[in-house]
Amino acid sequence: MRSATAAGLATGLLAAVPAAAGAAESPARCRDVTVPVSLSQGQAAQYRIWGRLCTPAERPAGTVQVLVSGLNYSHVYWDFPFQPGHYSYARHANSAGYATFDLDRIGIGRSSHPAGSEVTLESNAHTVHQVVAALRGGAIAGRRFATVMLVGHSYGSEIAKLEAATYRDVDALVLTGSAHAISPTTERLLAQLGQPVDQVPRLAAEVPAGDSGYVTVQDVQRPEFMYNAADADPRVIARDIATKETNTFGELMTIGDADAPGVTGRITVPVLVGDGAGDRLACAPDATDCSSAATLAAAERPFYPHARLDAVVVPHAGHAINLHRNAALAYRSIIAWTKRVLAARVPAMQDPPGNPR
């Protein structure tokens, strides 16, 4: 989604509390944490990123996956509150032996809400960079994670690309709902689906009073553009609508920055691009050829000349691949790829100085 959708759409642990009820059913130990962050280099860390850290219950994890949602989504996208054994990517990753840090991006949900004009692709990337540093330094888990990867969806994939290209501090990228060529037809339609935040009391209570820089989307956006309805449970779509979040004009106006010439050319870590075959943004006839994993990879590889790039296409799924009936296929593909590319690079999780095991 490019600018045409504008109408539509001090490092360390500050606090740690047990995760909400229901976490005991997960194959992981989870706790909610907040991380102090600034919006750009040299600023004071006056804002907070909220996230849920889950580590495998049976064994320590050397790798943590930082989960980054797209526009109008929160951490809920990765740990969906309906049949989580099926729709929660976080739980699948935990079962496979990976820790996850499922965050609310800056300006979303339980994280801080600065002025909407300050919430951009660049400030999103900078705040995620500080989360990565905290995970590597042991400030969040009490132990250092030797390997950190970013797993993004849609706008979250754009954040992941810019973060990796700018700070070069992660070991792998998974980019879902992502492609360099996006359907202009779908963009024009999405541009008509904006909704003022003050029409949704739950969201209006989150954002700074009177800040028109925060917007959201009409409910119809979900079934029309995020899903292939034939491959989705209507109850999932309803819950998705009920938990929709915001975006900012600052984010929309900077969405193309990660695709500027040369940006992804600075990425040198392994990259997996994953899209649903029915994605109306990434895989439409006037977008990217997603007829197979091979065609998707061929379309994306020229943009990553210094990285290993692989691709996966999830049959029938729409843009929100995690929320389709065959989501487990996407999860298995991501986890299998991760095991392959990181197998030789995952030392055991280490303790920070002064904090012996």
Task: Kindly describe this structure.
This protein is an alpha/beta fold and 357 residues long. α3 (121-137) crosses α4. Helices cover 27% and strands 19% of the residues. The radius of gyration is 19 Å and the shape is globular. It has a nine-stranded mixed beta sheet, sandwiched between helices. Strands 8-9-10 form a three-stranded antiparallel beta sheet.
Spell out the key features of this protein.
357 residues; alpha/beta; nine-stranded mixed beta sheet; three-stranded antiparallel beta sheet; 12 strands; 27% helix; globular; disordered N terminus; disordered C terminus
Number of helices: 11
Cα-to-Cα separation, first versus last residue: 46 Å
Q: Which class do the helix and strand fractions yield?
A: alpha/beta
Poorly predicted spans: 1-18, 20-24, 346-357
TL;DR?
This protein is of the alpha/beta class and about 350 residues long. The protein has helices spanning about 85, 90-95, 120-135, 155-165, 185-190, 200-205, 220-225, 235-240, 250-255, 295-300, 325-340; strands at about 15-20, 30-35, 45-55, 65-70, 100-105, 145-155, 170-175, 195, 215, 245-250, 270-275, 310-315. It has 11 helices and 12 strands.
Blueprint (SSEs and pairs):
Blueprint: E1 15-18, E2 28-37, E3 47-56, E4 63-68, H1 84-87, H2 89-95, E5 99-103, H3 121-137, E6 147-153, H4 155-167, E7 172-176, H5 184-190, E8 194-196, H6 201-204, E9 214-217, H7 221-226, H8 234-242, E10 247-248, H9 249-253, E11 271-276, H10 293-300, E12 309-314, H11 327-342
Parallel strand pairs: 4-5, 4-6, 6-7, 7-11, 11-12
Antiparallel strand pairs: 1-2, 2-3, 3-5, 8-9, 9-10
